[in-house]
Amino acid sequence: MKYIQVKMMALLICLMATVNSNAQRVASSPDYIKALTSEWEGERFDDGRPKVSDALLSRLKKIRIEEAWGYLRQRGFNNQYEGGWKIIHPEGVMTGRVVTAQYVPLRPDLKEYVKLQGAKEKRDTIGGSNSWPIEILVNGDVYVADGYGRIIDGTLIGSNLGNAIYANSKNGVVFDGGVRDLGGLLEIEGFNGWYRDEDPSYLQEQMLTTINAPIRIGRATVLPGDVVLANRHGTIFIPSHLVAQLVISSEVVALRDEFGFQRLREKTYTAGQIDTRWTDEIKADFLDWLKKYPDAKLPMTRKELNDYIQNSRYYQP
């Protein structure tokens, strides 16, 4: 308990210091992002965001939203899901490392300050500030913007910026707001987007305030460096330090389901036996079933699976 208190105090001091140093910036400093994501122990980008591996991002695409949601809820992360989207390509699945941006209704004096501060940060002040988050995207990023649900006069991108986003990230967007020129966005091969609605108006009553700071997307809280899983069933934002364990835990749940469905078809067990806490007999049967499961079909390596089972109290006698 004392160790946890000391760690929390150190984190609070670090956050207070980095908030003060970050207060005048448009884009968060690397130190601030590191403080926000202090539980991540792996590699980071130069901007401070956790660099979750491409391999994990690929595996995450096969995880169901419900499984990811359940894993996070068990660990106290109750506000990471948002639904109710329109989707450019509804059949698509997107995962990636989050770059955040926050927009607010236009206020001239604040807009002027943001423009001057952007110039100090060597950002392009000739065009609109809505291009600034796009300029920093790298391969595997997902641009996530809080547009507070605005559609008319708040369309964050059209086909030009959509092409720029895909050129930099080879990925797509999650926008709590509107888009324009949907026909052009549909033509960008490989690009996808989750958005509220489309409108022919262009961005004129909305302005950028921050890049890579905490934002709200509907009922979800999103940090820079989170990993997003987006599909036709919604979007879920996963803290970087939980991604690896969430993925393998969800993969084992999928294997459990496959085993259960097979045994139900074979009439080995009743639905009641499978749909409740398993007996030691069923657990043993499942573990034996796993040993015979083809390595080539496993979503993880055999070693990862064995390590997970060995460290899981549920499967121990």
Automatic annotation (TrEMBL):
Database matches in InterPro entries = RraA/RraA-like (IPR005493), RraA/RraA-like_sf (IPR036704)
Pfam families for this protein:
RraA-like
Report the transmembrane regions from the record: none
Signal peptide residues are 1-23
Q: In the UniProt record, does the keyword Signal occur?
A: yes
Provide the alphabetized UniProt keywords.
Signal
Is this entry keyworded Signal?
yes
Q: According to the lineage, what is the superkingdom?
A: Bacteria
Protein name as annotated: RraA family protein
Q: Which organism is it from?
A: Flagellimonas iocasae
